[in-house]
Specification:
238 residues, alpha/beta, six-stranded mixed sheet, 9 helices, binds zinc ion
Length: 238
């Protein structure tokens, strides 16, 4: 499974997923169609599937144009807010790309119908706007309880699982993590690494379950009350 980032807007990553043996390609959260079509053309790949983690326009805005251009099937979560959706996904739903099998976990919090896509054998998870490297999504629709449980589901995956969030927020998150968890040397080291990467305008993703367990203050929060306090503090942190 090859996974390629397609940068979009100011800080989104749209992930292209390609299976060499079947030649099939999927895209995760195409907020914009043009950069996806360009990336497909550059690699000679044909899009067959569109997978959405949640309804926000910066994750679904390219759905209809891509479907029209490629005849792709659109799979996404529950509530009917996914443009052009063909297949409804919920907890336990299966996705296939060639021989790669993914399963859906419901991870509410950022939105109520947010899902994650987990390819257990590949040790890959697409986590949308639920977990970011060293951070987590804002609570637009859900409660702290829901988001804390959702992060717990992701953090409980095998520690070598690579996590693919949908935004390049790592540097701002690392600065907050250093503030929230000042005695954590793994956070300080990662802040230095991420600063160097972003100075060279390089991507900081994917991350991994192991890295997040070590350095993500929201994952490391011992209880919901601590999580809720950190999330509120991060909302206004500069
Ligand atoms: Zn979102």
């Amino acid at each position: 499974m090859q996974i390629v980032p397609v940068p979009a807007f100011t800080d989104n990553y749209i992930w292209l997923v390609h299976d060499d043996s079947s030649g099939e390609t999927a895209v995760v959260d195409p907020g914009d169609a043009a950069p996806v079509l360009e990336a497909l053309k550059a690699r000679g790949w044909t899009l067959a599937q569109i997978w959405n983690t949640h309804w926000h326009p910066d994750h679904t805005g390219g759905n209809l144009v891509l479907k029209e251009a490629t005849g792709s099937t659109i799979s996404g979560p529950g509530s009917g807010r996914i443009p052009g959706r063909d297949i409804s996904l919920s907890e336990g739903s299966e996705l296939r790309l060639g021989d790669h099998v993914g399963r859906v976990v419901e991870v509410p919090g950022h939105t109520l119908d947010h899902i994650g896509l987990i390819f257990d054998e590949d040790r890959v998870a697409f986590v949308g706007d639920t977990l970011f490297a060293m951070g987590c999504g804002r609570l637009f629709e859900g409660t702290p309880e829901q988001m804390y449980a959702s992060l717990g589901k992701i953090a409980a995956l095998p520690e070598d699982t690579r996590l693919y969030p949908a935004h390049e927020y790592t540097l701002a998150n690392a600065r907050f993590a250093a503030h929230a968890d000042p005695d954590n040397s793994a956070v300080a080291e990662r802040l230095a690494e991420v600063t160097a990467l972003r100075d060279r305008e390089q991507i900081t993703l994917p991350t991994s379950v192991a890295e997040e367990r070590r350095t993500n203050p929201f994952v490391r929060a011992p209880d919901v009350a601590t999580f809720a306090r950190l999330r509120a503090e991060k909302d206004s942190f500069r």
